[in-house]
Amino acid sequence: MKPLRLLVVAASTLLAACSTTYSVTEAELEGYLNQQLRKQHDAVQSKAPLGASFVLGDTSVKIGADSDKVAVTSSARVQLDTPIIPLRAGLSLEFKAKPYYDPVEQAIYLRDVELSTVEASPKQVEALLKPLGQQTSQWLSLILQSQPVYTLDQNDWRQELIGQFGREIKVKPGKLEFILKP
User: Fold this and answer.
1) DSSP single-letter state for residue 141
2) 181 CB contacts (<8 Å, ≥6 apart)?
3) Separation in Å, CA 146 to CA 16, 113, 179
4) Residue 34 has pLDDT above 70, yes or no
5) Of 54, 63, 90, 127, which one is least surrounded by beta carbons within 10 A?
6) pLDDT in tens, 165-175
7) Neighbouring C-beta atoms of residue 166, cutoff 10 Å
8) Is 11 inside a domain boundary?
9) Would you say residue 8 has pLDDT above 60?
10) φ and ψ at 84, to 5 degrees?
11) Which domain holds residue 136?
């Protein structure tokens, strides 16, 4: 009985020492999001109307800068081929959303996604690109709410343990921290 008790205490100590907290940083979330958005962009780009194209730029993430929210900023280069003159411009969109961890899917999603800013450059084309900015923001908002922004890697033993014991996440400046519960 004593060896079993010792084994349980040792295993509990090991679990506590190895994975009392696990967090996802801004850089990890950015990398994962950039990869997912590029896949979605390639699928949508093939369906773009004639004369219109856009190239998605990098996406940046700020965690916890605005209370318990994640800010996602994404940029795109837009080109419209018109009969008179081709139009080239840049769009920058910023979203704010609450992160949510789904323990069944072992993934982080964004809820209550709201568009906070739409900017175009050069400024002279901002009014012209506003409708395109709204369409792009609807597309990005749909992706951010329906696709996970981060999924735990079952090949990493720490993330596998988080998948078993993680029930929710807490927003801290620069990271999302998993709350572990048995």
Assistant:
1) H
2) 165, 166, 167
3) 33, 11, 23
4) yes
5) 127
6) 888 899 999 99
7) 20
8) no
9) no
10) -90, -55
11) 26-152
CATH of the domain at 93: 3.15.10.40
In this structure, is residue 60 part of a structural domain? yes
Q: What is the 8-class DSSP label of residue 42?
A: H
Can you tell me the distance from the alpha carbon of 67 to that of 93, in angstroms, rounded to the nearest whole number? 20
* Under 8 Å between Cβ of 150 and 6: no
Residue 52 has pLDDT above 80, yes or no: no
What are 123-162's pLDDT values in tens digits? 877 777 667 667 767 777 787 778 888 999 989 888 888 8
pTM of the model as a whole: 0.74
123 in helix, strand or coil?
helix
Residue 7: inside a domain, yes or no? no
Question: How many domains does the chain fold into?
Answer: 1
